[in-house]
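Reopening this ticket.

The earlier resolution said the output was attached, but the attachment link was broken on my side. Pasting everything inline this time so it's all in one place.
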Amino acid sequence: MNQPADHPGAAYVPRKITGPVLMGVVPGQPLAVAHRAAELAFSLGVELVCAYVDVTTYLAEEPDGRVEALPIDPDGIDDDIEGISADLQERLQGALDDAGIRWSFMTLAGDPARALGQLAETRDASVIVVGTRERGLGARLEELLVGSVAVHLTHRQHRPVLVVPLAPHPKAHPKPRRQEGR
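Inline output:
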């Protein structure tokens, strides 16, 4: 007798993970995030998809059906998005080319959590990997204003999210004092 998979008495049968590992990339991100994502992709035998989300652009559908990335502020500072993307791809290439995995890089537009979630859905990603933020006033202010990408991802889609922590701040874990006289 077949029972629905969500029925309390149904036997769980795991499926083989075949979807890629999706990693969110930002400028200045420590390579530790790419290394963890590569290790996961290697262990699962799947591709690593690296995606940079340009937050200064948004996607707009043209009358002919094309979707184009347009700047949020057309009169604003002309950031070199192609240059940023090329630099990120070059840095990843140096870190991943000899890793023994298939990997790719792409640039997306808009809200990072939404863009990564949509790409994960499109590519049927098995997991999304992101890094934590650097410490400092600027990072705290940004998180206060736009929130954590990892938190938004966990609330907006159904895939697991792996958050790779950066090195802890030295003051967070003080060194133990040596005991003298023993």
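Reporter confirms the inline version is readable. Helices lie at 31-44, 81-96, 112-123, 137-146, 149-156. Confidence is low (pLDDT under 50) at residues 140-146.
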